[in-house]
Design goal:
The complex is a heterodimer of chains A (169) and B (603). In chain A, strands 1-2-3-6 form a 4-stranded antiparallel β-sheet, with no helix packed on it. Chain A has 2 helices and 8 strands. Chain A has 2 domains: 33 residues; 113 residues, Immunoglobulin-like. Chain A is an alpha+beta fold and 169 residues long. Chain B has 15 helices and 23 strands. In chain B, the strands form 5 sheets. In chain B, strands 2, 3, 4, 8 and 11 form a 5-stranded antiparallel β-sheet that branches. Chain B has a 5-stranded mixed barrel with strand order 13-14-15-17-16. The longest helix of chain B is centred in the middle third of the chain and has 29 residues. Classes of the chains: A alpha+beta (169), B alpha+beta (603). Chains A and B meet through helix 1, helix 2, strand 4 and strand 5 of A and helix 8, helix 9, helix 11, strand 16 and strand 18 of B.
Chain lengths: 169, 603
């Protein structure tokens, strides 16, 4: 190159030697991030059905490609609650969690099925079980309302004794 | 060299060069698109090609910008420089296609022309992190287009090499724009530190390589002093290698003093073609041959052999007492000057063994062939590695579905507020939350194209396709009609919802359609312009909030009166915000009521 172009190249890179590293440093080091909600507003998450605390033992249930983790808590002799989450992202739209006192034999939602709540992503959801569940574990039915089909169902582990034994069908 | 216009003056080297180039680019792009879904089944099939072509352009530009300085540091890299312009044209093509895909995916189907959308959707030019990084990409692409369009020797000859070179130094500006485009775009959304490290290292490589080369070149630019007669003492004649040159600097420009066949001649060091360094070339068949593209000149006259017409300035040289003396006054280009005769030619040293190759030579020397083959092999291995590494690093796709081929029917009450939605009865014993609410949207970036006001409160059958993610469900509406309401339903829809209290929440505004299914990712800076377009077109804005456990909640945004805020939040999308407002629960929908003037930016 002729000298003026060499000078031009040199001056450009003297400038870029500062500009590019500065751009990278500021752009990466001070990258803005959306902070998580602050402590007081976690109450909102609780009101929205997210589980504030998790039980010690969680049972893993696999229903095809969708895995679930469930935990049971007996609050008192008459009240108990269910903690449930999908291990992987939800494969069906609007998945509702129902409880039925008996085992499900066919792939349809019984009319007397009791709605416990809805699943949201992979978050743990807190749902209150009916009093009857303290004596008879019953079954959980995961129902996709938008697809109007039972996604999966499984018997609940007993609140008394071992939590083993849950299985999807 | 050419006396007639030809699109490409093909030769075997160019074919091999272009073959390897195109094969490597095709392998990378196809490989990237093939590998990505293997690592991430949620990969967005429309987003993956955008990343594949964009990253290919960035990598190729990095390689192109490495070639020049590498050639200055080691002349064995010169075969890579021979056809570098074709690499530039390919980079431009990759960038153009990347831009076309972006326009087609992020800006099409909106309420304004996609090109206008690209330029007008984000005008935060006064903000660093919200800066429209797309503009930097457009700037880089425009420069690359100008360079590609003027890359042919036709333009080089008409503009002259100094102007052409100055124009093509725009590539450094383009590269800076491109780094900015990546840093303020992809790297704001993708926080993978390894990906950032790749970009940082490549930028440092380019900057360091060019700074080192510029510094070395600067050392050669020291003027040689004149003797009392106004001549420059070039040095002992034996210092000038046979068929090679010694380069000196006079009056700021370089002069190449060649020794050949017992003679010494001096010519300008700048080739007329691209101002390549003739003094680093070789005398072949009695002609000085430029190392860049092989343009040739008679060392005595500075003229190319007929039928070629290129000419460069010549200088008078003398040999006195075994030393070469040069008159630094240039003769007009092409002026013949009598060469100085080396007094004792028998004492001339043997030709140096420095390897020399120009693209149109039939064969390359073995040493150079081995050198360049190994470098190309390393480069191709790096491409193979990148095909498997970059898709993994790019990742961060989310699980979201858009069942756009599966048209279904949904029955329920249609509600116009807080955003058009259908209220569907949940079966069984439901207690408090007896309904599921699915927000209704239209095709493309628009609200539902149905008579929402006329159908408000009516029992309707909506036809459409589902969009869903993490429990949030929407319907892309194809049609809706009023139908008789079932008389047996005992469930009463709470119209006002359940107030949950006033909260201060931190999060990000996204458009619900893209976030819940159409795009992956459908949030953060990289998606900002699409978010603006969607919300401006009538897609309900949603405020995304997460806690430390990763639980994510989304809130439909309305003002304190419950009215839509679409046109009032456009400048704040994709930025961290704090909103204080009243939260109301409508079954599975959460609504955040707050005046947009009270939204607070967190950065």
């Amino acid at each position: 190159m002729i000298r003026t172009r060499r000078l031009m190249h040199r001056q450009m890179f003297l400038l870029l030697a500062f500009l590019i590293p500065a751009l990278l440093f500021v752009g990466l080091a001070f990258r803005p991030d959306v902070p998580p909600v602050s402590k007081p507003d976690i109450t909102l998450l609780t009101k929205a059905g997210f589980a504030p605390t998790l039980p010690g033992n969680l049972t893993r249930i696999q229903a095809g490609e969708q895995g679930f983790e469930i935990g049971l808590e007996a609050k008192s002799p008459m009240t108990s609650s269910l903690i449930i989450r999908s291990v992987n992202p939800l494969l069906k739209p609007d998945l509702l969690v129902y409880w039925v006192p008996e085992s499900i034999q066919n792939h349809s939602l019984p009319e007397h099925a009791l709605l416990l709540g809805e699943l949201m992503g992979t978050s743990f959801r807190h749902m209150t079980l009916p009093t009857a569940a303290t004596t008879e574990p019953g079954s959980l039915v995961i129902y996709s309302l938008a697809h109007q089909e039972v996604f999966t169902h499984f018997t609940l582990p007993s609140l008394v004794g071992s939590e083993k034994g849950a299985h999807a069908s | 060299m050419s006396v007639a216009y030809r699109v490409v003056q093909w030769n075997p080297q160019k074919r091999i060069y272009d073959g390897i180039l195109l094969a490597a680019v095709a392998f990378y792009v196809v490989g990237f698109m093939w590998v990505t879904p293997l690592f991430d089944t949620n990969a967005d099939p429309m987003n993956v090609p955008i990343r594949a072509y964009g990253s290919a352009a960035f990598i190729l530009l990095t390689i192109i910008l490495s070639i020049g300085p590498l050639c200055r540091l080691d002349s064995r890299f010169l075969p890579l420089l021979y056809n570098r312009r074709h690499m530039g044209v390919v980079t431009c093509a990759l960038g153009l296609y990347h831009g076309y895909l972006v326009l087609n995916w992020y800006h099409k189907y909106g309420n304004i022309d996609p090109l206008v959308s690209l330029l007008a959707s984000n005008t935060n030019y006064d903000s660093f992190f919200s800066f429209p990084f797309e503009t930097l990409g457009i700037g880089a692409l425009l420069i690359l287009i100008v360079m590609a369009a003027t890359s042919h020797d036709f333009w080089l000859a008409n503009l002259t090499a100094p102007i052409w070179k100055a124009l093509h130094m725009g590539v450094y500006v383009a590269y800076t724009f491109l780094v900015g485009h990546v840093v303020l775009g992809a790297l704001q959304s993708n926080t993978n530190p390894i990906l950032a490290t790749f970009v940082v290292l490549s930028a440092f490589w380019i900057v360091c390589l060019h700074v080192v080369t510029a510094w070395r070149e600067n050392r050669h630019d020291q003027n040689t002093s004149l003797d009392p007669e106004g001549l420059i003492d070039v040095g002992p004649v034996d210092e000038v290698p046979e068929h090679r040159a010694k380069i000196i600097c006079a009056s700021g420009e370089r002069i190449a003093v060649f020794r050949y066949d017992g003679k010494v001649s001096a010519i300008s060091n700048a080739c007329q073609h691209q101002n390549g360094p003739l003094g680093e070339g070789q005398v072949i068949d009695g002609l000085v041959t430029c190392p860049w593209h092989g343009y040739q000149y008679d060392p005595a006259s500075g003229a190319s052999p007929p039928p070629f017409t290129e000419k460069i300035p010549t200088f008078a040289v003398f040999i006195r007492h075994g030393r070469v003396l040069l008159d630094p006054t240039p003769h007009p280009a092409g002026t013949p000057v009598e060469p100085a005769i080396v007094p004792n030619p028998s004492s001339t040293q043997s030709p140096d063994n420095q390897e020399f190759f120009v693209g149109y030579f039939p064969t390359m020397t073995k040493g150079m062939s081995r050198f360049i083959s190994r470098r190309i092999a390393v480069l191709l291995l790096a491409v193979v590695m990148l095909v498997f590494v970059l898709p993994v690093l790019h990742g961060e796709y989310h699980h979201a579905r858009s069942d756009f081929r599966d048209v279904r029917e949904f029955d329920g009450f249609l509600r116009a507020a807080p955003a058009p939605h259908i209220v569907v009865v949940r079966p069984g014993e439901t207690g408090k939350h007896a309904f599921s609410r699915y927000v209704l949207i239209g095709r493309g970036k628009s609200g539902p194209k149905i008579d929402v006001a006329g159908l408000d409160g009516k029992y309707v059958r909506v036809r459409g396709t589902l969009i869903y993610r993490d429990g949030g469900t929407m319907i892309s509406v194809k049609g809706a009609e009023e139908i008789p309401a079932p008389s047996t339903s005992a469930k009463t829809e709470p119209l006002d919802g359940e107030p949950l209290g006033t909260y201060t929440l931190q999060g990000e505004i996204v458009d619900s359609k893209c976030y819940f299914g159409t795009m992956r990712p459908g949030n953060t800076a990289v998606h900002r312009q699409c978010t603006v377009r969607c919300i401006a077109g009538g897609i309900p804005p949603v405020f995304l909030v997460r806690d430390e456990s990763g639980n994510t909640m989304s809130f439909l945004l309305v003002d304190s009166n419950g009215s839509t805020v679409n046109d009032r939040v456009l400048s704040m999308v994709a930025d961290p915000l704090e909103i204080k407002g009243e939260v109301v629960r409508l079954d599975n929908l959460f609504v955040l009521k707050a005046d947009p003037t009270q939204y607070r930016r967190l950065s």
